[in-house]
Amino acid sequence: MPENLLLASSLGDLFGLVVIIALIFYARRRLRSSQPEQAFERHTEERGSIESLARRLDALESRVERLETQAKETAASPAPVEGVPVAVEGPAPAMASTAEAAPEAAPPEEATGGARAARPLSEIIGIEPFPPPSEEQRRVVPELPPCESEFTLRRRELERRLMENWTGILGAVVVVAGVTFIGIYTALRLQPFYRFLLTLAAAGAFLGASRLLGQKKAWLQFSAWLRSTGAAILLFACAAAGGLPGLGLQWIHDPAAALALLLAGIAANLLIARVAGTEVFATLHVLLSLLPLAIVPATTTALAIASAVAAFGVGLATRGRWDRHLAAVLGAYALFSLLWAAQMGERLEPQAARYIAAGCAAIVFVAAALAHYRKDYAQPTPPAIQLGVHLANWGLLAFAMFAYLPGYLVRAGVLLALAVLAYRLGRRARGLRVAWLHQADTLTAQGLVLLALWTGYDLGAGDTLMLLIVLVETLAFRRLVERGDDELLDKVADCLPIVAAALLAIGGAADVVARPDDRLALAAMLAVGSACAVLGERLLRSATDGVHSAPAGLHSREPTFAAALAFLAGPLLLVALGALLEHWWMEATSLIAVSAILLAWRRIGQAGLLAATIVALVGSHVLSWDYLVAHQAWTAAALAPRMGPLAGLAALSIWLAGPGVLRLVAMVLLGADLGLAAYLFTDPISPLIPGVAWLILSLAALEVANRLKERESLTSLCLGYAYLVAFATAYVLVILQTPAYIGTLRARALIELFAIGVLAYWWFYRPRDALSGTAAWVHVHPLFLELILAAIAVTVVVEVRPLWWAVAWSGIALALLAPPVERLFDQRARLYSLLFYWISVGDMAVVMSVLEVPSRLWFEQPEFTSLLAIAMQVAYVAVSHRRLALAGLESPPPVRFLARLGGAVAARRNLYVYYPLFAGIAVFLFWRFDRSLLTLLWAAEAFVVFGLAAWLRENQFRYVALGGLAACLGRLVLIDMAEANLALRGLVFIGVGLLMLGMNAIYNRYRARFEA
Amino acid sequence: MKAGARIAALVALVACGIGLILMLQRARLQTPLGSTLTSAFQVVGAPLKLADRVASRVLPVGDLDEKELGDIYRASFDPQASPPSREQRYLDSLLKELQPFAGKPFPYRAYVVDYPTPNAMALPGGVLLVTRQLLTTLHSESELVSVLAHEMGHVERGHCFDTVRFELAARKIGAEPLGAIADLASQVLLAHSYSKTMEHEADEYAFELLTNSRYDPRGEAAAFQSLEQYVAARGDRTPQQANPLRDYFTSHPPLEIRANEFGQRAHAWWSRHAEQRRYVGARNLAALVALPRHELADEWTGP
């Protein structure tokens, strides 16, 4: 891009910037002027209302006068003739209508000759007359101006605003734009030096105009802006003359001369900042002075000049309490320093440069500090910005020292010295009762110490060690800050150790993962940290908090900070234990360490320590479990030293904890330890053993639950449930996959039978009142019947060949209907017997009807097992006729729906009990046997149904049997007659005939039953 | 329960449990996999399979329809088997030995097909396909018979028919696309649930057939082990721990579980039938000459 175009573009941007600034000013003005404008509008509206009211008042007065005059004239006139309507007395009507009606409706007294004097009209119409205004009043009431329209008022307001504000602003903007355009035009035609002169001339014009206008009071503000503009242009020209690229103004090529010229421009600006007298202009010129220094190449000279400028700018703040100015200058200097350091890069290596940079920062700091350590700032509660600027000043110095000073010893020494200085200053401020300075300097001192500690990284210290040192330091700080002296300092001093301890726990955990070789050292450091947290808890207690005489529970009201720090002892210890996981003595260590915290809690009685104990106890167990499971398989010799202390820790915790949540937690952990031990010890021998062990443990848990009280009893009961769930999981995932033959015995089947036995023990168990009243017992225990039946069903499916399923289901159905079984279990066993019966019928009709087996043994044929199942189903039907009483079935809450189901079945017993069997057998016969024998077989079924009808005295069955027989006869005639095999045909006919005869005999023998 | 009876029951139960643990400890029984859910899905698939069979029974299709379908398949494969190769003749001889065990009215025939992996499959109507690779992967005739019996089990237990029943029914009533859609839907919805159940049923059928035949019941477990070796040689290993999704979507139970179960069952069978002698036929398979045609005395084995 050509140079002139670039210049034009830059200046165009400048013009755009000016316009944007103007618009911002307009918006601010509008915001400020909105309130007077609204007040003016309100005033205008009120004035209009008053005028309207006055006009109406005048009209009313004139009308009243007219009426009174008319009334007097009427009273003086002759009496009216008879028959003239007379006004009736009544409530006074509205004023206007009364006034209009009055001439026609005179009062009767007046109408009858006016015996009394005429009453005034005001009395007649019921209102008080307006007293005539006195002369004085007439004089006082001002003459109202003529009423103006809304448009006129708005136009005048617009005119006023334009004249008062925008003419000046817009005029200035237009002039600047015009000058800019002319400048560009001219500049493009001149040599750089002349352009520089032209720019200087423009600056001089502004400054001259400012000088002229500044003599008049009305133009003071405008004059100040012109002066600033001139100074800014001057600085721009000086900077550009020395080498700002692309502006076409460079005519000096000697760096020293360019710097001298730039310094002149800066000096001019600083001078104007000095003479400006207001905070805004001072800030503007100091920042403008720093700007070109940030653009020129980064050197120590540039930094020194910038620091001098910043120090001068900060010094200006001594003229008042210019905190915004201070904030702006310090912020700009901080940015400058960052930029400078980034540009310097490796050039910062020589120590001299570093010392110079640190010294420059110190100069600025001292200047700013001098501004703040004055009597002007000696009020106890300063605005927030004041505190912020003070801290920022110290922060700037601290980071400059940290970043620039070479060598960690020098760095740490200087930072510590500064910390001591800040602390001493804070103490002095406290003596002078300047509270904010006391707070700020004390906090600064603490920050400087932390920064000094940070240099420890240069010595090769890791995160954990550094954070441990920080924790100790924060505790020392807590000790140093006198409690109750200052609320903010108290809170900060309380919070810092908590934050440090939390960071130590997090950083320590990260180190443990990242540095496996240093885990022993890390564990030691974290253990020390945990101890610090326990000891620090005492420091964080307020003076009014005494040591509790009894251990505090989780819900006790404790000092929050002390409790939080005490709690962190738990995670710290946990991380320390995690670092020791690979050592066989980790669990033994955790036994000692966690017991120590537990004892500390017993002695101190702090809720935070209780939480810490729980975290450490649970966490150490979880860590060990995870490690032990992940590193299977263990030999008994390797496992015992680990599981023993772990279980011992849980047992010791139960003993030491006393009644409460910790004991319950420890009980759960002990239960889990035992379950895990059973798994880890036996799984390598055979994966089938742990499930059996868990079943035995569930029995133990149940017995223990019955001997404990309240929540402990409930906990033990839940452990028992958990063992059962663990067994179920093991069964599904491990045991189910193999029949596990031992010789000809199936170990899986034995396990299943043992599980059913254990479930039955749970079902038959009658605990003491303490346990039987718990919700866990009331809601879960009734379901053990369902669990037993489900276990039986699963065992059948898994262990019995499908060929025998129908028989098995029928057998279970019959067994559930047996009186002893019902006595042992529950009424709802009847309903479940029906369920198994349905399954048996369905299995027979659907599976057995088409099941093919390759066996040649007669007892392994589907026909045989199906007929056996049918026989058992018929037996079930016969037994159920007397014993399946499902109406009014009582069911516990979890299975309440069973009672409704039983009622529905009882209401339509035949539909749900008998006909499924009849239909199932018919379908089975249809699918299983040869079609040529089908009529005979169906007729046999009809015969059985007929017999049942006689036995059970159920006439409906007789009709069904007869219907079926009729169908068989139809099939005999229509289908079997076409059978090619004559012998078979004869056999069918004979069979059907015999069956019919049999039915006839039954009917005649048991006629009374049928007819009953 | 009274206290005395309760304590007695508790003692008895704990004693039984401890006895069981001791028994397991002595036997040191191991499971084929660390943990798996395939067995559980196999059990859960049983009721689903039952429901599916109810649907099959309701449709107006039967064995004759399946046989017709089988005839179509046979007609398409017969030209490949004519003139019969040595492998084909061998399979024909074995099927002749197995045909008497079939309950369905189909003429079973196994065809040799070229396929890069050892496999076998069953089609409706008694058509079995055996890859040439399978004949070289297995180590004995009893193993091959167990595989053929497994495929026959699929046909006999109606698995093949169930997969095409909707299509058969639709063809019967003249609405073929609907049947194809119904088949697809049933496969998508149910196949993964009960396919493991069907495989296990077919395995059961094969084992029963072996125990009723002249072949060694250990042949089935041996066949699974041969296939395991093949899979292992390719670098595939069955994951040792359970994964619900993988275990659900696996169509077959893991070979390790099948080999373990039927190996144990064969062992138990031999414990009960120690006096019997059964045929292995390793050299028969190598020579592709079936037992009915060439009996080798040293191929008979005992417990």
Can you describe what's shown?
The complex is a heterodimer of chains A (1012) and B (303). By secondary structure, chain A is an all-alpha fold. Chain A folds into six domains: 1-73 and 121-176, no CATH class; 190-296; 298-460; 464-544 and 558-637, no CATH class; 800-928; 932-1012. Chain A has 40 helices and two strands. In chain A, strands 1-2 form a two-stranded antiparallel ribbon. In chain A, helix 17 packs antiparallel against helix 18 (487-514), helix 31 packs antiparallel against helix 33 and helix 37 (934-952) packs antiparallel against helix 38. The radius of gyration of chain A is 53 Å and the shape is elongated. The model of chain A is unreliable at 1-20, 30-37, 78-130, 140-144 and 543-549 (pLDDT under 50). Chain B is mainly alpha-helical and 303 residues long. Chain B has one domain. Helices cover 64% and strands 6% of the residues of chain B. Chain B has twelve helices and five strands. In chain B, the strands form two sheets. Chain B has a three-stranded mixed sheet, sandwiched between helices. In chain B, helix 9 packs antiparallel against helix 11. The radius of gyration of chain B is 22 Å and the shape is globular. Mean pLDDT of chain B is 85; it is low at 189-193. At the A-B interface, helix 25, strand 1, helix 27, helix 30 and helix 33 of A face helix 1, helix 2, helix 8 and helix 11 of B.
